Amino acid sequence: MASENRKEQFPLGNVLFALALAAAFGYYAHDVHADARGVTDWLLIVPAAGIGITALLINAGTKVTDWYRRRHMPAHDASNSTSGASPMPAVLFMGLLTLYVALIPTIGFDLGSFVFISLALYLQGEKRWWAILGFSLAVSALVVMVFIELLNVRLPTLLI
Amino acid sequence: MINVDAFQAAINLLSTPGAWLVVPPGLIIGLFFGSIPGLSISIAMAVFLPATLYMDFLPAILFLTAIFTGGGFGGAIPAIMLNIPGTSSSVATTFDGYPMARRGEHAQALGIGLVGSVLGTLVGYVLLLLTVQSISHWVLRLGPTEMLVIALWGVTLIAVLNDASISKGIAAGILGILISTIGYSDAGQMRGTFGSMYLLDGIPAIPALIGFFAASELFNLIGKQYIVDDSRLRVVKFRNILGGMRHALGKPFQLLRGGVMGAVIGAIPGVGASIANLAAYATAKQRSKEPESFGKGNPDGLMAAESANSSSEGGSMITLLALGLPGGAGTAVLLGAFALHNVTGGPRFIRENTDIVYALILGNMAQALLLLFIGSVFIFLAGYIVKLSLKLMIPIVMVLSVVGSYAITGNMVGPITVVATGIIGWLMRRYGYPVAATVVGLLVGGMAEGELVRSMQISGGHIGFVTDRPITLVLLALLLLSLAPRIINGVLKRRRAATQ
């Protein structure tokens, strides 16, 4: 069977994520240390970043050595931590959420929430336009009104 | 231990029906605000604080503490049903509550959570009743080195709790600590702000918590139809809620252990409530005959977490009453209510107004019992969340989280934090890093840095200073003891895997 012939894949995502985090820790610690006015500015940050970088490198190294040991063996299910499901729907939703938050200062919470909910429903397979419009309108209006009228939160809005 | 005359006076004070009229509405408000992602107990208490202006002191505080008590359990509802801890003290509730809900045991989980919460609150206030007159001396003995070790204990506990490797747990915890240091330092240095004035106050903790827990989990749920996959399990039966309650009541020792730990650790200002639920959960896991089932929907883990986080309410009231120090946002609003009625907490307040202090404690114990009935109805209705299609629920929760985070920060930093931490959290989950460790690091990091700086200033940089601090040494020993079994197990497991 095809799955039996599939070899253990190199954990590229896992290793890249660990190295990216380690680089971010290192950059932050260096930046803080370089601009520090005194030892108290970096007293926690530099040692903590050092420990974090060590932990991340150990983790990346362990992943690589585990893969090297098993590289000729058939792949075991779920490939460690990744679920095996396509990340594309989640990535699309993240893009949509980022767009929603980026547009709020321009189009406000009322219109922004309406557009976000409509597109989120469409993205998840809802094709009935009247259901999309009705649900988006009801939820966005209710949430915005509750926060503005009941909780006295000054939300930026375009229409309400 | 108990001043009998003051105790009788307290009962007389509470016998006025007027003091009780405000309690059921307070509980319902707390349950409502606690159960909606993006809202919080402190928002509820702040919104209703002006309403107490025309009340007497006792009904005013009973009303606010009713919101506090109701919200304390209300936070468990999204934690169990949606994997969103409504408050920082219900982080551990998600560990087993959410897996139970996904397995279709949502009603049992809510029932267990309610009983754990009610009994935890009772344990917390009973301990407060017994110790309120002497506890202030104990809390004042905690110096910067002790507080630093407690903060570090909270972060390292995650290494015990999570199923991922210890290196991933440590890296995740340190990510949280480093995020918490963004913004102005005590010495006035701008750190990690990229020149943005919006980041001068740092990364807001609650929006980050929403992002790490809620948004990252919602991203994973895209494409799924319901929280509970099996349609036969998607039912809401009161019988199941009662079954969960019976299960919890059948394990009084575990509830008591969680409650006592919650009250003791919850009394530590600043971090108590955030760490209490994790410490109780870690202890329950270590003592369990099936530790591997923790994190996969073990009711004992849920009981430990809920009893501890509810009893930490009593613990945080200790510092409020005994020292006049708020332990968190909720008690800070209570302190505001004290000020509104010209009352100042502290040893003098306890000595001169013991009857009022006892009345507050007894009133809160009665509130906990009332919560059992009001909460039962509330969770029956909340259970219907499993019947709601994820297609509809995900956009609603996401909009509530974004709007709620804006309400917390008052600017776009809140919503941007939700998105950024949601994406980082999703990547962490994908590669097996425990997001809970990052959240705890974020919650205690600021305090850890402050206490580290103070420890260095007091000791002059000499590490031998801690040998003169017996409480620090005991806490360090506890920290190492809690880590040792997990580290030894991890090493043995890798050795076994290498030899196979």
TrEMBL record, chain A:
<keyword id="KW-0812">Transmembrane</keyword>
<feature type="transmembrane region" description="Helical">
    <location>
        <begin position="90"/>
        <end position="123"/>
    </location>
</feature>
<dbReference type="Pfam" id="PF07331">
    <property type="entry name" value="TctB"/>
</dbReference>
<feature type="transmembrane region" description="Helical">
    <location>
        <begin position="129"/>
        <end position="151"/>
    </location>
</feature>
<dbReference type="InterPro" id="IPR009936">
    <property type="entry name" value="DUF1468"/>
</dbReference>
<keyword id="KW-1133">Transmembrane helix</keyword>
<keyword id="KW-0472">Membrane</keyword>
<protein>
    <submittedName>
        <fullName>Putative tricarboxylic transport membrane protein</fullName>
    </submittedName>
</protein>
<feature type="transmembrane region" description="Helical">
    <location>
        <begin position="42"/>
        <end position="61"/>
    </location>
</feature>
<feature type="domain" description="DUF1468">
    <location>
        <begin position="16"/>
        <end position="156"/>
    </location>
</feature>
<feature type="transmembrane region" description="Helical">
    <location>
        <begin position="12"/>
        <end position="30"/>
    </location>
</feature>
From TrEMBL, chain B:
<keyword id="KW-0812">Transmembrane</keyword>
<dbReference type="Pfam" id="PF01970">
    <property type="entry name" value="TctA"/>
</dbReference>
<feature type="transmembrane region" description="Helical">
    <location>
        <begin position="317"/>
        <end position="344"/>
    </location>
</feature>
<feature type="transmembrane region" description="Helical">
    <location>
        <begin position="106"/>
        <end position="130"/>
    </location>
</feature>
<feature type="transmembrane region" description="Helical">
    <location>
        <begin position="27"/>
        <end position="49"/>
    </location>
</feature>
<feature type="transmembrane region" description="Helical">
    <location>
        <begin position="61"/>
        <end position="86"/>
    </location>
</feature>
<dbReference type="InterPro" id="IPR002823">
    <property type="entry name" value="DUF112_TM"/>
</dbReference>
<feature type="transmembrane region" description="Helical">
    <location>
        <begin position="470"/>
        <end position="488"/>
    </location>
</feature>
<feature type="transmembrane region" description="Helical">
    <location>
        <begin position="197"/>
        <end position="215"/>
    </location>
</feature>
<protein>
    <submittedName>
        <fullName>Putative tricarboxylic transport membrane protein</fullName>
    </submittedName>
</protein>
<feature type="transmembrane region" description="Helical">
    <location>
        <begin position="392"/>
        <end position="419"/>
    </location>
</feature>
<feature type="transmembrane region" description="Helical">
    <location>
        <begin position="356"/>
        <end position="386"/>
    </location>
</feature>
<feature type="transmembrane region" description="Helical">
    <location>
        <begin position="431"/>
        <end position="450"/>
    </location>
</feature>
<feature type="transmembrane region" description="Helical">
    <location>
        <begin position="142"/>
        <end position="160"/>
    </location>
</feature>
<keyword id="KW-1133">Transmembrane helix</keyword>
<keyword id="KW-0472">Membrane</keyword>
<feature type="domain" description="DUF112">
    <location>
        <begin position="25"/>
        <end position="439"/>
    </location>
</feature>
<feature type="transmembrane region" description="Helical">
    <location>
        <begin position="166"/>
        <end position="185"/>
    </location>
</feature>
